[in-house]
Amino acid sequence: MKRFILSIVLGIVFCQPLFAESEKILFEKGVALMKNDQYQEAVAVFTRFIELAPENPAAYKNRGVAYMKMGKYDLAIHDFEKTRQIKPNLKGLYSNLGVAWYYKGDFDQAIKNYNMEIALTPDNYYTFFNRAICRAELDQLSESLADVNRTLALFPEFYLAHCFRGDILAKMGKTTLAREAYQRALEIDPAHGYAKEKIAGLPPEEEKQEEKIMAEAPEETEAAVAKEIREPPVEKSSAETESVSKTVQTLAGDSETTPAYELQAGAFQLEKNAQALAKRLQDKGIAVRRFELTRPSGKIWILVRTGAFETRAGAEAARARAMEKSGLEFIVRPYGAF
């Protein structure tokens, strides 16, 4: 997510009409250096300017921006706080503080400053966007999404906001809405690669029912009848066989007797969705099996599972490894049953 915050344009004050001539020359020189990305030189010029006009807020703010561009966030915060002491309502000041605190990793402090900027300039879409990024860093996904939506209400053609909206929705498991967000971004800028890359990484359309079906998965306590779906044999190279063998040992190695638990990756009513998930896991080197369980009501579920474990502790440990390996969610289930 940090790649999005880099798109922020830090506010620079470009002119001050009340300077003496020598001060005016210094100030304009500092701005010119910053526009040419000569930040170290700009710091030196604004420092000289501050010696001549120590109570000028624009000089501290611009020097703070230069420090920010150099990655010297503590010095930037010091200059922005000095600016606040002199002129607390200066436009863009709290956004700059928010960016500095973001890069220091203090997202709560960044959000506090963005709140103050929004109170001063409620129509600044970048402030809402930046606050959305900070909230996402704190896993405040609903609040982050609300900020992105407000960003797009102010600036509907903001490519990065559509992309970031897609990222949030994908993280929330709302794959269909995430795809729509990325596609909207592509409509705005077809040449930009980020949205294309993210769409390519989403599950195929046929798997979009997975979240809903998982939520409807039957309770563990219900009786069931199991019937395994046997796969046709697939010829594997020796390297592939070794990879699968290692995966089975990793995920199912604690049960030499009758297993009590296994890991479930999905529960489906459509065979094609179960097949698609099984293939994704197999492509990641995780051996799986698919089988049917029938609820007393007669409803049939196709389950995608892996591993065999004597203890729940062993299953939980393998679950963590499987999730890290695949990037997908697993749950522990009784072996061969709901």
UniProtKB/TrEMBL annotation:
A Pfam family the protein falls into: SPOR
Signal among keywords: yes
Domain of life assignment: Bacteria
Keyword Chloroplast: no
SUPFAM superfamilies cross-referenced by the UniProt entry: Sporulation related repeat (SSF110997), TPR-like (SSF48452)
Region ranges (Disordered): 201-255
InterPro entries in UniProt: SPOR-like_dom, SPOR-like_sf, TPR-like_helical_dom_sf, TPR_2, TPR_rpt
TPR repeat extents: 23-56, 57-90, 91-124, 159-192
SMART domains (UniProt xref): TPR
Polar residues: compositionally biased ranges: 240-255
Biased composition annotated in UniProt, kind: Basic and acidic residues: 201-214, 225-239
Cited Gene3D superfamilies: Sporulation related repeat (3.30.70.1070), Tetratricopeptide repeat domain (1.25.40.10)
A GO term for molecular function: Hsp90 protein binding
Signal peptide limits: 1-20
SPOR domain sequence ranges: 255-335
Keywords: Repeat, Signal, TPR repeat
Record-given protein name: Tetratricopeptide repeat protein
Organism (species): Desulfobacter latus
